[in-house]
Amino acid sequence: MPGEITKPIADLKQRTIRGGLARFCSQGANFSLRLGSLMVLARLLDPKDFGLVGMVTAVIGVFNVFRDFGLSMATVQRASVTEEQTSTLFWINMLFGTGLLVATFAMAPFVAHFYHEPRLVAVTAVLGTGFVFHSAGVQHGALLERRLQFVTLSIIEIIALFTSVVVALAMALRGFGYWALVATTVLTPLVSSACLWSTTRWIPGKPRRQSGTSSMVRFGGTVTLNLVIMHIAANFDKVLLGRFWGAEAIGLYGRAYQLVNIPTDNLNSSASGVAFAALSRLQDEPSRFRSYFLKGYSLVLSLAVPILCACALFAGDIVNVFLGRKWQSAIPVFQLLVPTALAFAIFNPLGWLLSSRGLVGRGLKIVLVLAPLMILGYFLGLPSGPRGVALAYSVVMTLCVLPLVAWSVRGTPVNMRDILLTIGRPLLAGIVAAGTVYGLQLLYGPGLAPLPRLLCGSMLVGSIYLAILMYGMGQKAFYLDLVRGFLPHSRLESEVGASA
Known about the structure:
The chain has one domain (8-486). It has 500 residues and is an all-alpha fold. It is 79% helix and 0% strand.
């Protein structure tokens, strides 16, 4: 095991901010690659191609949450870990990955029978190999997270995604159809794990029964159960649409869902790893824990809100520009899903708080309440097809988000007043900016093509929003403080004693 695993982390504030910047930049590249590949593949492939792969991932996608069994989070969250513990966890991860591969192979005929689509046997079997590839790099990635080496992790993520996208585009151009989508799903974890092994240069030792990993496995098991339930609930809409409305319906709904969620997913991914690692080091310092959490939460929301306002305002132009005119039926679905994306942007960062403080049991209870409500909404909207499901999903999430946030923060250093103030500022600024641009668009919009209209409108929303947030809401000092954190001559905090 590399010696850095037991060294204290100094300069936590600066390393957290720089790690966040690295993740943000990598997610920006990730966003560009995903969106660019989606634009090209949407024109090279048919909705049915996306629908076929979507049918499989809606069923076996639940296995994704078992890939590391929450053991990467357990490794990062612990104040200290030993080489024996990490090696033992590596082999547990590989055991789960192999088991998921076998389970996927066994399920392939049943998936094809369920959808009445014989081609899904081969698709399901090939997608199963990705589980083993991912499991091989889980603990290597966790070691880099513990050291807050997010620049390295970001580079690896970009390399893996870029490689898979290039292969997918080449296959699509050569007429491989839906196999191009299968290839990108399998290649990403393969390339990522290979890079992680090469970077950490850590070779796992033999597993040991008495290594003290039982509490870590319990932590990971609770996290995994939480993710399983949430994954089932979040993907049951696609299962229902695929079963009762067919491949084209799930293809349209799935692309609209992906398009509206790419920005917020990337933002949460940018912040979650860094925030979880940093907050885990501050478990015993309530005031600083609260300060770090609220700053990260505020930053994520302040970036997500204008993007989602633009999605609601320019839905037609976004679909036409990024998917093409043959996807016109996805426009109302895309627009109806915007409130769902906003609700998750508000709620998802609470996972940092719960996990870093070891409150994974509470997180499980919250999911057990939310999941049945989401599924009930899908059934209520199903008779109206993709539009009905999208509307019901958004209604359920809008009604549930604030009660669930209040439950999450109860008894923690963060209170509901903190949350409401943090949400209120960007949300009000976003509404004012969107309303202003909507009025302006009535004047200049009809004379422009979709792309220039989208660019012009997005820049106006962003500029007005930023002016209101920084000057009208008094947030200028907050963002200047973040900028100072990137500068080498800034005054740094010393966090000696926080164990890696």
